[in-house]
Amino acid sequence: MDTQFYVSLGFIIATFTLYIGIAIYNRSKQTSDFYVASRGVPPVWNGMAIAGDWMSAASFIGMAGTVMILGYDGLAYIMGWTGGYLLLTFLLAPQLRKYGRYTVPEFIGDRFDSHTARLIAAIGTMIVSFVYIIGQLSGAGVVMGRLFEINHTTGTIIGVVVITIYATFGGMRGITWTQVAQYLVLITAYLIPVIFMSLQITGNPVPWVSYGEVVSNLGALDRDLGLSEYFSPFQETSKAQFIALMFCLMAGTAALPHVIVRFYTVSTMKAARWSGAFALIFIGLLYLSAPAYAAFSRFILMTKVAGSPIDQLPAWVQTWVNTDHLQIADGNGDGILQWEELTISNDIVVMATPEIANLGIFVIGLIAAGAMAAALSTAGGLLIAISSSFAHDIYYRLINPKASDKKRLAVARISIAVATIVAGLVALDPPGVITQIVAWAFSLAAGTFFPVLLLGVWWKRANAQGAIAGMLSGLTVTLTYIILAKYFNITFFGIIDTGAGIFGAPVSLLATYLVSLQFPAPSQKIQDEVTDLRYPEQMTYKDGQVWLDDSQQS
Predict the structure, then answer these.
(1) 105 — alpha (psi -120 to 50), left (phi > 0) or beta?
(2) What is the pTM of this model?
(3) How far apart are CA 452 and CA 335, in angstroms?
(4) Are 264 and 101 in contact (CB under 8 A)?
(5) Residue 344: helix, strand or coil by DSSP?
(6) 334: which strand partners?
(7) What is the pLDDT averaged over residues 26-53?
(8) Cβ proximity of 307 and 225 under 8 Å
(9) Are 61 and 199 spatial neighbours (Cβ–Cβ below 8 Å)?
């Protein structure tokens, strides 16, 4: 155990104590606290909580690494995730907030007046959230493994224990404020290293301005080594895969149940829109920094690590080799580490770069705390989505409608504990790297929920039979394609498993539309409710007319 270990441990213990303290202080005492924080979260804080919820281990740990490894092709993640938030903010979030429910399955069940649709939506929410949380727990394992110099399995188990404690006690109310704290920790941890690296390499402390010069230098280095240039498009993936992945991330973002539910925690449609605007600003700080982080990391590795004698490599190399995320091999036997002989996992670039750039023990400790904050904040939101789908949509709405508040809270907390433990067991041997697992979750959300939510809000003719056909067909097609591409190498048009939603979403949209036309239209009451979603809260559509609510005029 060295000084670095104790500094990193100190940061993580301090932040864990803060999160658990916030969760206990804001402990949910009734079901509205547990599911939607009693709809009392101010927009700016909700925007910050959304950003914390959104920026998962995939964003914090994996995105810069993916861009560093894939170059231009990795930008599909940034463009897809950012574009998805615009879709959500303008097309769905305010309307879903006006409908005034607790969860996405509850909206689908009531909008289509169907318990079958509610049940399918609840199961779909649990599948999407379960896949997503595996990536978060895997990310926690990476951080813990590096910190304690232990294997991934033990690191994941430690992360599972911490998440179970604070998510079970806090509910949505507690998780909202822990996500605010986690956002502040993770964005600080992300920006400080990239600013220091910018200063170190270019002398300019503004990385968003200075990294263009470094990208040009990387192109020259790649040409000297006979490699494809870093910024050349479609070198690592095909154009079809780039577009498919970007679509899945965009549509998936707009349909992720654990993200949508955050818009239920504010009081009005206007507050929902402002929450989305604030969230975009807070998220943009990290997303605009990720390409700079990737360029600086690659430049340092190519100029200061590659070309060094293998027996004189710095100590951090062996530390990361021990975690199985870094591999070196003297392929030509010359004793010098060549760039081609270095294999670095996407998942450790952000974690390892402060050590590679020699930024000091406090920055390294801060990065460890930030990475854990990212994994924990998203995991908390996902667990609430799983819990509410089971305890509220299945148990309360379908099995025991007379259950007391106390019993419903107990079921919700038990479901969180069970979901965390089961997901943790799967994450012990994750089926892919973090960004890949997370991309599956987005594809599943895009194929299962996006068409149904879009038509449910904007097409009053959509009915229960169409929604059921759309969700089942989209989920089946997307899940089948992921399995075929991942495990049997069966693909179409060069699109791999992470772009599966490009097949599922159109099938779901078509099925919802065509099947809806084969059955009677929804009742006039439901059609009026759908039309009403297009108007501000001060207006109500009823009986073919728009009514102005004078009591809400200031």
Answers:
(1) alpha
(2) 0.79
(3) 59
(4) yes
(5) strand
(6) none
(7) 76
(8) no
(9) no
